[in-house]
Specification:
It contains 14 helices and two strands; from the N terminus they run H-H-H-H-E-E-H-H-H-H-H-H-H-H-H-H. It is mainly alpha-helical. The chain has one domain. The chain has a two-stranded antiparallel sheet. The two termini are 21 Å apart.
Length: 285
Amino acid sequence: MEWFEAVLLGLVQGLTEFLPVSSSGHLEIGKALLGVETTDDLLFTTMVHAATVLSTIVVFRKEIWDLLVGFFGGLKDWKIATNDAGRKVLVCNDQTDYLLKMVVSMLPVLVVGLFFKDSVEALFGSIQVVGFALIATALLLFFSDYASRPGRKSIFPANEYRNGLSYWQAFAVGLGQAFAVVPGLSRSGTTISTGLICGVKREVMAQFSFLMVLVPILGETFLEVVGGEFGASSVGALALVLGFVSAFLSGLFACKVMIALVKKAKLSWFALYCLVAAACIFIFA
């Protein structure tokens, strides 16, 4: 992989990571157009994903700091109590509750990473898989816009849950993230759409969707380092660094833009784009 190819692919990753159009799918399209060897996929993809995680941390640094301070500061106040329904519940502060829901959302993708990693890796490099997955992304975006219209009934009870979502809703969003490991199936699009379908408000999903992915991607990057993938890769160090920087800088811009779009814009416009991209794949690939 040449350095300019790494910069271009980093830009693609950073700009599409936060938009509901599948960054992994666009990386596959970019690699196909540039003629990049598919054997380079895993390491480079992990690096540019780590770069966009860093951009997420920068954008949400205040919220992340507040969560961590609240969690560690509230540990001493944890206790088990009985609620009005006679059930035993954990009494904790809002920050701890939010982090626990993030942990619940990570469980499905953890199962996929532990037991289906080889199957997922086999999907990378197939541009046809990306095309079908983009169609699935488009359908999900269309449906979430329809299901989240004012007056539509949610599949979950319309309660005012703590921090804007319940543990079951967090788990459902996590299931969406687990399916989104398929290249072409947008992670942000899948998680945000799943949340909207389950009755979570747009402003809540705008933050939760981006924060819930931090630990899984950082964990994957750590395992790559421990497993020695960096030393075994055919991708040069310069290409990795330039791709990382490119993805980080473009990710900063795209993250802020997407937060505003999720709160106000219709996801159907992104669905149309995904359909056009899928059509181009099947016509020209």
